[in-house]
Design goal:
By secondary structure, the protein is of the alpha/beta class. It has two domains: 203 residues, Rossmann fold (3-Layer(aba) Sandwich), CATH 3.40.50; 155 residues, 3-Layer(aba) Sandwich (Rossmann fold). The protein has 15 helices and 13 strands. The chain is globular.
Length: 365
Amino acid sequence: MKLAMVHDYLNQYGGAERVVEVLHELFPEAPIYTSVYLPAEMPDTFKQMDIRTSFMQKFPWMKRHFKKYLMFFPRAIESFDFKGYDLILSSSSGWAKAAQHDASCLHICYCYTPMRWVWSYQRYVERENIPPAAEIILKYYIQRLKKWDLQTNDRVDKFVAISNLIQDRIKKCYDRESVVIYPPVETRRFKIADTVSNYFLLVARLNTYKRVDIVVAAFNQLGLPLVIIGEGPDKPHLENIAKSNIKFLGRVSDLVVNEHCARCRAFIFPGEEDFGLAPVEAMASGRPVVAYAAGGALETVVEGLTGVFFKEQTPAAIVEAVKKMQNMAFDSQLIREYALPFDKEVFKQKLKKYIEKQYAEFKSK
């Protein structure tokens, strides 16, 4: 079976790119087609991969003006030639699912979400500070993009969703069925520490939609130590509003993340994510999670056993939840056991079995 992988873009390292690393472990000989690849922004592991880029790779100032090239991504993915391949495995939150192929090729899409900027447009742009004139143009283009997204949805033969939330979203947006295979978490990388410190921890890309701002406001009130790991465009603003009890570590190694996860009092997860790897990593370290009660966290965090939920994205709700968890006792070993079903090896076994089954059925038709 000759297999090709397709990923939206490789210009930043996040949860989807961690999945790509694991997909490469599963299929090390498969080339990875993507619109643009910025090696300086990615771990060295990607340098060992056969990465094939589109015409967008030659565009200038890609790191700084990435979002301004929005209209070129559909054409970039459609420019790839997949003749001779038996199976396409797309890793998609937007563009990669539109990979074109002939009838002799099976296309399985591992879907992180139908593209947010199309299906949740207002929510996506409300915190992006887009100039009014630019938003008029953007709204027009988004309508065209939505039509394109629907028209290209039938290029996927089988959808695999990262969570029940995304399974429902695929049904609502595309009227397509899917199976759920949770993303891989390297639970074996995380250990339970002998001793726990008094600080709280947040690990995230510091973008506005991650809602780190309400965590900073909450801990400004609480006065408790908070460690924030991550980089992003919202970092200067967050540092400006944070009091001295809040420490920003920026981008750090996996080893430093491991150590902080293991020793934190609790992990704070304020955003509404499609799945959310970070809370599971904290749970693999035996630490409880204080999470917003929405999105993927509802499928990974168990109220009272592995963490505490807050129901509104406000500083006051976080303050209340933190005070509540401080009066609760948690079993670190039990918390870790809840994380193990999300392990990387479980993901690899499930996805490989699913692909083999679907390909055998496809070839027998």
